[in-house]
Amino acid sequence: MMDGVFSDYRQTAPTGGPGERVEYDRALWQRLDSLGLVRLTGAEESGGSGAGWLEAAELLSAAVRHGVRIPLAEHDLLACWMLEATGRPVDDAVRTVSVARLRGESTTPVPWAADVERIVVLWPAGDEYRLTEFDTADLPITPGTNLIGEPRDTITVDTTGTTGHPVPTDLVDQLCRKSAMVRAIQVCAALDRAVALSIEHVASRVQFGRPLAKFQAIQNLISDAAAESALARAATEAALHTAIGADWQSAQLDFQIATARSCAGHAASVVTRNAHQVHGAIGTTHEHRLHEFTRAALAWRSEFGSVRSWDDRVAAAAVAAGGQQLWALIAGA
């Protein structure tokens, strides 16, 4: 069903030009809302569909596979989840979330900030955080985009005189884990699609009297890309299953998420290079869809933590475990 919704949309949806800022399609959003997909994981008593992260992962992956840019994850899995977790009411407004480092400090770029209706803002206050919602129109916003034109806007939050709602730090830690997981899922879906497009291309393209897929050099490029993509997906799925089973609080979870993000980040380099190499000149054109997935993977891998930061976390965990406990760390024992 999810693939069907996005596939039908993709046939008629306009494609933006190079460098253009992406605006999510409100008509598509309304259609998804009518199908119960906008708040797929929300509690049924508050208007959600009561599904879980496995279903949400499939929805996000389907959107990526069809090149649909829309704030599903930021709205459902992050902003609305945080409101529900802190006992705050949730209505039909479209939301995103931002975690400010200091009271009143300009935050890092916020996904879809200028395009949504409300922004859930958290800021540190002593041993906890505080939460409040702002209407987008009430905040100074500096427009920006990521590599694929998705809005990444900078907001300045003045919380002076705002009491806010108390949020324990462990809930903010969960938000950070979920944010990182969202991007891992999206990167993996983009890499899988880039590999699939490459396989289709080399199987149908004939050069020197035979398909490209018959050349050993091409086979090596494809197999390397497929292996990296599969590794990233396996690490991400392992982290996701641990998160679901432990309600996002397992002692192993931070290491597994770091591993998933590290694998996905490095896989993005290999898959992008190899996919464009086997496609040749046609793969560099705006008309060909390959760039929708390779550039997306490169953009998303650096959000909610850089590849280097995730590498450092994996290395730090391995060093802390030591030789005797390293295998137990890797195996999740």
Automatic annotation (TrEMBL):
The keyword Oxidoreductase applies. Coiled coil: none annotated. GO terms for molecular function: acyl-CoA dehydrogenase activity; flavin adenine dinucleotide binding. The keyword Oxidoreductase applies. It comes from the Bacteria. Its cofactor is FAD. Keywords: FAD, Flavoprotein, Oxidoreductase. Residues 181-304 form the Acyl-CoA dehydrogenase/oxidase C-terminal domain. Residues 23-87 form the Acyl-CoA dehydrogenase/oxidase N-terminal domain. InterPro entries: AcylCo_DH-like_C, AcylCo_DH/oxidase_C, AcylCoA_DH/ox_N, AcylCoA_DH/ox_N_sf, AcylCoA_DH/oxidase_NM_dom_sf. Gene3D superfamilies: Acyl-CoA dehydrogenase/oxidase, N-terminal domain, Butyryl-CoA Dehydrogenase, subunit A, domain 3. Belongs to the acyl-CoA dehydrogenase family. This is Acyl-CoA dehydrogenase. It comes from Mycolicibacterium peregrinum.
